[in-house]
Amino acid sequence: MSRVVVLVVVVVVVIVVVVTVVLVVVVLVVVEVVVVVTVVLVVVVVLVVVVVVVVVVVVVVVVVVLVVVIVGGDGVVVVAVVVVVVVIVVVVVVVVVVVVVVVVVVVVVVVVVVVVVDVVYQ
Fold first, then answer.
1. Coarse DSSP helix, strand, coil percentages of the chain, rounded to the nearest 5 percent
2. What does the alpha-carbon distance between residue 98 and residue 107 come to, in Å, rounded to a whole number?
3. Is the Cβ–Cβ distance between 115 and 32 less than 8 Å?
4. Under 8 Å CB-to-CB from 49, ≥6 apart: which residues?
């Protein structure tokens, strides 16, 4: 009788340990995948934004220079206008990048928490 009880206790302990290890591994894999996806998303968003900024700055500078050349004006005014426009565009883009990165990170954290809770409580 005591052997049966010991055997049952051993089997239950082994099952609990195996299930716990499997759950931990699953959670770690899911978290790792989500983190990798997040990093890739953030890098892609930042690269796209940088390309857009460069294009916008080039277009704005060309347009301002063309307008000043066509209308006529002082070279100092052209430089001042170009600098102001470039600074405004860069500030707006930096704000957009920060907002996008924060949103992506928050979404990923929420997804990780939901997945972990779901896996643990299944």
1. 95, 0, 5
2. 14
3. no
4. 93, 96, 97, 100
Residues 53-82 have pLDDT tens digits of 788 778 877 877 777 777 776 667 777 777
The predicted structure's pLDDT at residue 69: 75
In DSSP notation, 62-73 reads HHHHHHHHHH--
Instruction: Tell me the C-alpha distance between 20 and 120, whole Å.
Output: 9
How far are the Cα atoms of 9, 45, 54, 74, 80 from residue 104, in angstroms, in the given order? 46, 10, 23, 45, 36
For residue 30, the model assigns a pLDDT of 73
| 38 and 104 Cβ atoms separated by less than 8 Å | yes
Q: Is the pTM of this model over 0.90?
A: no
Task: Express each pLDDT in 82-93 by its tens digit.
Answer: 778 778 877 887
Helix (H, G, I), strand (E, B) or coil at 10: helix
Angle between helical axes of 2-71 and 75-120 (0-180°, round to 10): 170
